[in-house]
């Protein structure tokens, strides 16, 4: 069975500092990995994805993520956090072996303080 | 495309009543997912379809929940009878494989 773990329920960071949100996954075969962000009372918005190719993926709003196959990780990063980045972040995985199911982690709340 | 459209946005109903949530996926997407979000359990996958066929409904909590996809442009999630513990935000998402999923705005269900 495929799964996603986001080990931190909340990440606190000062504005202007680097932001990292951790994600590890388990899937049979090639992983297809995604990050989403959710603002209050909104649906999930797509940030970036890894399908194949470069291990460093760049996405919306200055976010990037690094795919590490040996560590089965896909951590989300932003070099300089903004107060407006405060939101709930979800990592997700899809794999053919699991019927192309889209499985999400538990989410990490990010709080960026001025 | 207007994106994934869910209706209603908010639903308040009394315990025991039937509730139907609706979803219109993005045209051309062949996968449709239904999720439920609560503070306690996070984002749970309830059921998903591929080409209108249910693939995995193992996340459906009980027989009170049912979902259908009669055609490529419409899906419903029905709860009958509803209970207070069903109160949550229900999301629909559509995608093609292996692309990203696009989510609707969700339906906030309150059962009193």
Structure, described:
The complex is a heterodimer of chains A (114) and B (112). With 114 residues, chain A is mostly beta strands. In chain A, 0% of the residues lie in helices and 52% in strands. Chain A has no helices and 12 strands. Chain A has strands at residues 3-5, 10-14, 19-21, 24-26, 32-38, 44-50, 56-58, 64-68, 73-78, 87-94, 102-104, 108-113. In chain A, the strands form 3 sheets. In chain A, strands 2, 5, 6, 10, 11 and 12 form a 6-stranded mixed sheet that branches. In chain A, strands 3-9-8-7 form a 4-stranded antiparallel sheet, with no helix packed on it. Chain A has a two-stranded antiparallel sheet with strand order 1-4. In chain A, strand 5 (32-38) and strand 6 form a beta hairpin. Chain A is globular, with a radius of gyration of 14 Å. In chain B, a hairpin with a 6-residue loop joins strand 9 (88-95) and strand 10 (102-103). Chain B starts with a strand and ends with a strand. In chain B, the strands form 2 sheets. In chain B, strands 2, 4, 5, 6, 9, 10 and 11 form a 7-stranded mixed sheet that branches. Chain B has a 4-stranded antiparallel sheet with strand order 1-3-8-7, with no helix packed on it. Chain A binds chain B through residues 32, 34, 36, 42-46, 49, 51, 90, 92, 94, 96, 99-104, 106-107, and chain B through 4, 31, 33, 35, 42-43, 45, 48, 50, 55-56, 91, 93, 95, 97-106.
State the end-to-end distance of chain A. 41 Å
Class per helix and strand makeup of chain A: mainly beta
Helix-strand pattern of chain B, N to C? EEEEEEEEEEE
Write down the overall geometry of chain B: globular
Radius of gyration of chain B: 13 Å
The amount of helix of chain A comes to under 10%
Topology order of chain A in helix (H) and strand (E) letters: EEEEEEEEEEEE
User: N-to-C terminal Cα separation of chain B, in Å?
Assistant: 36 Å
The percentage helix of chain B is under 10%
In what range is the share of β-strand residues of chain B? Answer: over 45%
- Oligomeric assembly: heterodimer
Largest sheet of chain B: 7 strands, mixed
Number of helices of chain B: 0
Largest sheet of chain A: 6 strands, mixed
- Based on secondary structure, the structural category of chain B is mainly beta
Shape of chain A: globular
What ranges of chain B have pLDDT less than 50 throughout 5 or more consecutive residues? none
Query: How many whole angstroms does the radius of gyration of chain A measure?
Result: 14 Å
Mean pLDDT of chain A: 94
């Amino acid at each position: 069975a495929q799964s996603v773990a986001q080990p931190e329920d909340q990440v606190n960071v000062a504005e202007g500092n680097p932001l990292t949100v951790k994600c590890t996954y388990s899937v049979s075969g090639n992983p297809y990995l995604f990050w989403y962000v959710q603002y209050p009372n909104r649906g999930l918005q797509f940030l970036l994805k890894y399908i194949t190719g470069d291990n460093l993926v760049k996405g919306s709003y200055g976010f990037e993520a690094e795919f590490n196959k040996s560590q089965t990780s896909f951590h989300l990063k932003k070099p300089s956090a903004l107060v407006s980045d405060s939101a709930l972040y979800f990592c997700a995985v899809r794999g053919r072996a699991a019927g192309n199911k889209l499985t999400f982690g538990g989410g990490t709340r990010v709080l960026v303080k001025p | 495309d207007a994106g994934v459209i869910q209706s209603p946005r908010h639903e308040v109903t009394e315990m025991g009543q039937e509730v139907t949530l609706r979803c219109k996926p993005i045209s051309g997407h062949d996968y449709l997912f239904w999720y439920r979000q609560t503070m306690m359990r996070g984002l749970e996958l309830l059921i998903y379809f591929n080409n209108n066929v249910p693939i995995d409904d193992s996340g459906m909590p009980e027989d009170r929940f049912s979902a259908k996809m009669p055609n490529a442009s419409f899906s419903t999630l029905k709860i009958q009878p509803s209970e207070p513990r069903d109160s949550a935000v229900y999301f629909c998402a559509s995608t093609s494989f292996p692309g990203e999923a696009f989510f609707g705005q969700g339906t906030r269900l309150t059962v009193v």
